[in-house]
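tool_call: predict_structure(chain=1)
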Amino acid sequence: MNDLLLTPIHEEHLKLKAKMIPFDGFDMPVQYTGIIEEHFAVRKKVGIFDVSHMGEIELRGKDAVAFADFLVPNSIVPMKDGDIKYTQLCYPDGGQVDDIFVYKVKDDFVLLVVNASPNYSIKDFDWICKQKGDFSIDILNKSKEYGEVAVQGPLAAELLTPLVTGSISLTELKRFKFLYAKLLGKDILISHTGYTGEDGFEIFTGSADITDIWNGLLKEGKTIGLQPCGLGARDTTRFEVCYWLYGNDIDETISPLETGQGWTVKFDKEKFIGKEALLKLKEKGISRKLVGLLVPKGGIPRNKMEVRKDGKKVGYVTSGNYCPSLNKVCAMAMIDLPYTEKGTELAIIIRNREARAEVIDMPFLLPVNKR
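tool_result:
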């Protein structure tokens, strides 16, 4: 415990009697009243998550956009102020340093939101700094200066719209867009994004102000059933819609072309880190890919569990969980290409026994924008 970092909201979690666990170097709430209850709060009403452990890296200077475009396979140059794009940081061999969101603030300011610090923000920051070359750019790790909460669920806009004042109403803020505004008297950046598959927003502010926003929103949200939610519900909601989790479904050994992230790789760009390796893989063809599995009985599959076909290893589980919205157990797994067709029967080794599994479509539950 003494070695764990604390988010600015940590004391509030203790007051709410949250169950705390170590997560990516932080002491984080895994649940408050229960994972299933919190899961359905997000699916049916609205939940609030402390995500202040995420990392924020600022690129400032005249080459901010050009440098960001070089760092990632997605296309950053065409972005307008207020746009957000999902993408990756790739190694030269095409493996992933991390998956990130790029916020285009203005021509000389790009914000990178990276996975939970310090594990990834420091790794990402060090990697980015090594790529600076001749770009006219300042690279700033601001993770400790930001606080962040995510408000997710079908009633998120109903809660936040009357409370947020900015250049436009939240009702006009399209998905993957952001704006600077005020909330409960605090300066914020609010984005129409999330990690749950529901409608929702992510709110950034200074670390000194995030606790007031957390408490203020819990007070304002009482009448519509706002619930604090922990990492447990964050994982079940993201898993049902098959959003990738770095360190499980993607890592330094896995290419975006193998995971369904290929839509973010823009080969028509002149240059980006990893382009040559990814182009070779595209021309050669992948030999494995990420698929969904239905597991009717036998337990919950977990990361790295072996997947077999007729006794032969053909892959491994990346993520597995119970899906509360579907009342089913599913898994995401990296599987050799010959065994990835829908309906293929496989087996997962769970507690030294074979559990039957069947290849199914991903996502298991459609995100709200596709339902």
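agent: The longest strand covers residues 312-323. Proceeding to next step.
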